[in-house]
Amino acid sequence: MAPAFRFRADIDSLPAYVPGQRPPAGHSTYKLSSNENPFPPSAAVLAAVADAAADLNRYPDMYATELVAAIAAHLGTEPDRVAVGNGSVAVLETVLKAACRPGDEVVHAWRSFEAYPIAIQVAGATGVRVPVREDGSHDLVAMADAITDRTRVVLVCSPNNPTGTVVHDDEMWAFLARVPRGVLVVMDEAYVEFVRDDDAADGLALAAEFKNVLVLRTFSKAYGLAGLRVGYAVARPRLIRGLRSASTPFGVNALAQAAALTVLREAKDVAVRCERIIAERTRVLAALRETGWTVPEAQGNFYWLEVGRHAVSFAREAAASGAVVRAFDGEGVRVSVGEIEGNDSVLRLAAQWQRMRVS
Ligand SMILES: *Cc1c(COP(=O)(O)O)cnc(C)c1O
Q1: Which of 50, 255, 297, 354 is the most core-located residue (most Cβ within 10 A)?
Q2: Residue to mutate (ligand 1; options 34, 88, 93; most atoms within 8 A of CB)
Q3: Domain ranges in the chain?
Q4: Counting atoms of ligand 1 from 1, which one is nearest the CA of 113?
Q5: 24-80: per-residue pLDDT in tens?
């Protein structure tokens, strides 16, 4: 008998993407495990989604023309340099599938975003992990050293999920000077709106300068639309054309397009909410350092506690005290900056841990 159909053997061995845990229903628990925006959507966004819902029998605008134009205007670039997708992770998947042949290599930092190894493997490529430095930041010199004839793409995550660090402008220029023109550098700037480090690399400026730089951004974090799934790429028109051809048709649904368009018109309110999250981040980090924690520079809406083998037990205790955080077994925990009460709950636990360690 012929063997039953199976997916490729490597698909069976994929690591599962571990989403941030959800608090149990009916409990007043703070969800600090997925780097979401604690502010709910505005009335205008909800109204736009409700309006768009009246036309759900119709396909959405295939290339999200209006949204692409609005994003381009917002960024001060041209619409032919912007392509949208069903979340920036879907855009990344399309980039990798369109770029890589079997055996091609994708260089990225590690630890970094856990969606990367999965997307790389599904694209049929081979991931090459370059350890982050002691302070959690990308080692761009080692990453350039890791480029071979097989390398097609390098992923740079700034701020890096989960360590929170950014790549600096001078490092990035030195790095790009070493990257061959035939290698694509993807800068994942999912958290760029929260960056307050003046030396941070500016992905858009680099994408304007270098033909082989593609920037990824999202409406999931600062814009608070994680549930609707909209992300985009900014790059040269030639790359954007290819990306559009390779993308799932109608990849951004009608409700998401309407919501993203509306939230772009609320840019001022979005900025105010970002400032509140950043102020809270500053407060939380200062409190942690005061109690003796060494925390990497946090430039996203989250911070990293390197608790090593205690990661899972820290997360368990945090959940018991009302805050769900994200444990990376054996490495550390990533904690989103969310509601003040939730942040305080983790701060109390973190202070308690330090006291235990000292005594
Ligand atoms: C959250 C996150 C994203 C956003 O993904 P979407 O698919 O746009 O929701 C992208 N990259 C990193 C590093 C992230 O942490």
Answers
A1: 255
A2: 88
A3: 27-39+268-358, 43-264
A4: 13
A5: 665 568 999 999 999 999 999 999 999 999 999 999 999 999 999 999 999 999 999
Q: Whose CA is nearest to atom 14 of ligand 1?
A: 190
**Ligand 1 touching residue 93 (CB < 6 A):** no
Half-sphere exposure of 92 (CA within 13 A, CB side): 30
Neighbours of 24 (CB within 10 A): 9
Q: Check: CATH 3.40.640.10 for 43-264?
A: yes
Angle value at C-alpha 79, between 75 and 83, nearest 5 degrees? 90
CA angle 94-100-102, nearest 5°?
Answer: 125
- Using the atom order of ligand 1, give the atom closest to the CA of residue 229: 9
The CATH architecture to which 27-39+268-358 belongs is Alpha-Beta Complex (3.90)
* Cα of 279 from ligand 1 centre, angstroms: 22
Whether 187 contacts 214, CB under 8 Å: yes
**Helix pair angle (254-265, 43-53), 10° resolution:** 150
pTM strictly above 0.85: yes
Does 89 contact ligand 1 (Cβ within 6 A)? yes
Q: Which residue has the tokens 């109390």?
A: 348
CA atoms within 13 A on the CB side of 322: 13
